[in-house]
Amino acid sequence: MENLQNLPLDAAISKLIDLIVSFGSRLLIAIIVFFVGRWIIRRIINVVVKAMQRRKVEASLFSFVRSMVKITLYFLFIIILIGILGIETSSFIALFASAGIAIGAAMSGTLQNFAGGVMILLFKPFKVGDYIEAQGQSGTVKEIQIFNTILSTPDNKIIIVPNGGLSTGITENYSKEETRRVDWEFGIAYGDSYDKAKEVITRLLKSDTRILTSPDYFIALNSLGESSVNIVVRAWVKSPDYWNVFFDMNEKVYKTFAMENLNIPFPQMDVHIKHD
């Protein structure tokens, strides 16, 4: 570009006006392209979303693909806008690549989270809707994003867990299998009939249709404690019924033991006073 300082005043003004008009026209085109392009991107994303919905794509993959498509389209959109404004795109891409290396080194954790998200979608240790426990947190998987997984706790809190730790750490998935085993331990007082307690528990288990017969339930005398005779009870239920069966059986045993004159003991100590 010719230096304006070396031109006569009239030529310099004319040249400046030409530059302003040229840049203004590019800016106007860029603004129009911005609004039109943003509308097109939204339409493309909607088409992709509807296509995945028609094919009934798994919710975990659905959110991940939607995020990836959105980021890719907006990145290409920015490149196009820069080219319209007259900035050399090849130089910009080279600069972006160089900056990407430096940013990548500084954001290794973020890249690890991205790789973790890909690993989760490939190997599927859990999916949207599963109840999991990982990284010291537990909740129902609400969404699997590019960098994070969103958990919803039973008390309606939202927990954001980075995918990097989820993909490399230990994860307990309580929804993976169709059935789960419920464990209880009930105590009766010394002197109470173990056979009667076992018969009462058996009756309660058989009366609950949510408890499965295969595998069958298990009842045994587990230990002789300091203040109680402890009975272990194990039964299999469908995974969604786990907590309802657990709490219901606790309530039923407590009420029924009282009606059957079976005592649920509490820690106690006998004190003997000796007079000299």
TrEMBL record:
UniProt-listed InterPro entries: LSM_dom_sf, MS_channel_C, MSC_TM_helix, MscS_archaea/bacteria_type, MscS_beta-dom_sf, MscS_channel_2nd, MscS_channel_C_sf, MscS_channel_CS
Please list the residue ranges annotated as the Mechanosensitive ion channel MscS domain. Answer: 110-176
Q: What is this protein called?
A: Mechanosensitive ion channel
Q: Which UniProt keywords apply?
A: Cell membrane, Membrane, Transmembrane, Transmembrane helix
Keyword Cytoplasm on entry: no
Positions of the Mechanosensitive ion channel MscS C-terminal domain:
182-264
Report the GO terms under cellular component.
plasma membrane
The places in or outside the cell where this protein is found are:
Cell membrane
Top-rank lineage group of the source organism: Bacteria
The UniProt entry lists membrane topology as:
Multi-pass membrane protein
What family does this chain come from, according to its entry? Answer: Belongs to the MscS (TC 1.A.23) family.
Q: Which residues span the membrane?
A: 20-41, 61-87, 93-123
Q: Name one GO molecular function term.
A: mechanosensitive monoatomic ion channel activity
Organism per entry: Candidatus Odoribacter faecigallinarum
Give the taxonomic lineage as stored in the record.
Bacteria, Pseudomonadati, Bacteroidota, Bacteroidia, Bacteroidales
Chief location: membrane
Q: Keyword Transmembrane on this protein?
A: yes
- Coiled-coil residue spans: none
